[in-house]
Amino acid sequence: MASVDTVNAFSSSSSLPFTDTFYEDRKKYDVYLSFRGSDTRNNITDRLYSTMNQKGIRTFRDDEQYEQGKSVHSELVRAIEDSKIAVIVLSQNYVFSTWCLAELAAIVECME
């Protein structure tokens, strides 16, 4: 799992690991964030999301409105398809969540 120091290093970096062509793509989002909300939403994921948006990186993360345990909503699949890359924030309970694993399967399928 990433540490706060990793996020701080990212946020203080003057050069982004993305080229200009990264932004020329017609995708709606640059990054799709996948994470276990109860583990990371109020700390590392919030910080990562805020930092990327401040740097101009269009980032999608799901809202708490989605019910856990249901199949991945078409909205999430659409967001995954409309993202250039996905960032998986691994945490202790991510791999035990059927919701997260379904989301990860959709990411793998869409990114192939």
Automatic annotation (TrEMBL):
BP term (GO), one: signal transduction
Residue span(s) of domain TIR: 27-112
Catalytic activity as recorded in UniProt: NAD(+) + H2O = ADP-D-ribose + nicotinamide + H(+)
Record SMART domains: TIR
Keyword vocabulary terms for this entry: Hydrolase, NAD
Major enzyme class: hydrolase
One GO molecular-function entry: NAD+ nucleosidase activity, cyclic ADP-ribose generating
Domain of life: Eukaryota
Keyword NAD on entry: yes
EC number: 3.2.2.6
Protein name: ADP-ribosyl cyclase/cyclic ADP-ribose hydrolase
Phylogenetic placement of the source organism: Eukaryota, Viridiplantae, Streptophyta, Embryophyta, Tracheophyta
